[in-house]
Amino acid sequence: MKIAVYLLAGSLLTGFTSGTGENDIDGIWMGYYRSNLIKEKVIVKFDASDKMEFYTGGVDERTRLEGTYRLLGDSVSFTYVTPEGEEYTMKGQINRRKNFVDGTWRTNEQSTGSFYLERQKVEERFAQP
After folding, report:
1. Are the CB atoms for 50 and 66 separated by under 8 Å?
2. Burial of 49: CB neighbours in 10 Å, binned 0-12, 13-18, 19+
3. Helical H segments across the chain, by residue range
4. Which helix (H) or strand (E) holds 1?
5. Rounded to 5 degrees, what angle do the CA atoms 117, 63, 23 make?
6. Percent of the chain whose pLDDT exceeds 90
7. What angle do CA 14, 19, 25 make, to 5 degrees?
8. What pLDDT score was predicted for residue 42?
9. Long-range contacts of range 116-123, CB-CB < 8 Å, 24 or more positions apart?
């Protein structure tokens, strides 16, 4: 009887876990970052090797920047450097369902603002000519 209770309790506890592991943030996220003077649309692509691609405006090689990210619990921080040498650091909280992040950003010149990113559901399809 004790074994049946332990098995039932164990299955209930593992049945309610929603995480898929360390790569919960991997994928494409879209949103905005802003300050008092600017508001810019951004696209961020996180991958499994703690690398990220950051696009401002649209997806284009001219707007592409590479950086790194670190995931600690329900918070994420990522850093990238512009071609002009300005370093941006963004730190935010991931919601429980892991479908949006909001937080603040800072540059090495001490400019600050806020940002919001929402996870995108991307479906890849191939067409034959």
Report:
1. no
2. exposed
3. 2-15
4. none
5. 40
6. 54
7. 175
8. 94
9. 116/31, 116/32, 116/33, 117/29, 117/30, 117/31, 117/42, 117/44, 117/92, 118/29, 118/30, 118/31, 119/27, 119/28, 119/29, 120/27, 120/28, 120/29, 120/30, 122/27, 122/28
> What are the Cα distances from residue 84, in Å, to 33, 65, 87, 108, 117?
19, 12, 9, 12, 24
Q: Whole-model pTM above 0.85?
A: no
Structure tokens at 74: 């329900």
Q: How does pLDDT run across 17-62, given as a tens digit for each residue?
A: 444 445 578 999 999 999 998 899 999 999 988 999 999 888 888 8
Alpha-carbon gap, residue 119 to 40, rounded angstroms: 17
Q: Is 27 left (phi over 0), alpha (psi -120 to 50) or beta?
A: left
Write the single-letter amino acid at 17.
Answer: T
Residue 118 corresponds to which tokens in the numbers above? 């929402």
Is residue 67 within 8 Å of 55, Cβ to Cβ? no
